[in-house]
Amino acid sequence: MSLPSDFFGRIVFILQNYGPSFLAGAGKTMAIAVLGTLIGCVIGFAVGIIQTTPESKQDNLLKKVLVKGIKFILNVYVEVFRGTPMMVQAMFIFYGSSALFGINMSIVFASYFIVSINTGAYMAETVRGGILSIDPGQTEGAKAIGMTHYQTMLNVIMPQALRNIMPQIGNNLIINIKDTCVLSVIGVVELFYATKGVAGAYYTYFEAFTITMVIYFVLTFTCSRILRHWEKKMDGPDSYDLATTDTLAYTSGMVKFPDPKEKEGK
After folding, report:
1. What Pfam families has UniProt attached to this entry (predicted)?
2. Angstrom distances, CA of residue 173 to CA of 118, 177, 265
3. What contacts 263, CB < 8 A, 6 or more positions away?
4. Containing domain of residue 104, as a range?
5. What is the pTM assigned to this prediction?
6. 239: which strand partners?
7. Inside any domain, residue 64
8. 3-state secondary structure 215-265
């Protein structure tokens, strides 16, 4: 079958003959982006919490030195991975691990590892900012009732910080969906790598990458809508019941915030 001469005819031809290649590449892209973002969030939360751990004057010298040393190492990690391109990191880690340490990473493991630690560096700063954005009075109140630092972070600070940083988590996922294309430099067969193979078969670069651009847009747009819906679910309903067990000061009732559209109508 010969290649059609018109643009849309070539698009249809490519999809008919290489549709599975595009789907396989898109599936690999999403797998790396989603899992890498999840692992990166875990790394980011751990690093962010450690970075915001308060230092007490009552701590012994060994603990102070240990905490400062760990924070310094984590700060170096964050600055290095936020200050260098992921493509360079991929080349350095994949080839450097073999040259320096004799560790022969598989391409699959390397792809997840690189995206995870890169995302972790960005998420660490996001988590740190989210924790610091919470009113210090929340921490003081928790400590006043006898909570430890761990209990305060787990039950008071992190639930509030998580809602504040949800948009950035979604943003990191969308960035990772697009940035997985840089992993093609180490041979990861994701969407971009698959597209290059398809485009080279008939020299239809414009048509092939038009299809890829649409696929990337569908993936990112769908993820952004799902995450936006999740954020609204975390906000809860606009109306809620204020309840109290004190019958002498009963304040239970329906509270509804004014609708901005109603204000504009007035």
Report:
1. BPD_transp_1
2. 12, 6, 38
3. none
4. 7-239
5. 0.81
6. 256
7. yes
8. HHHHHHHHHHHHHHHHHHHHHCCCEEECCCCCHHHCCCCEEECCCHHHHHH
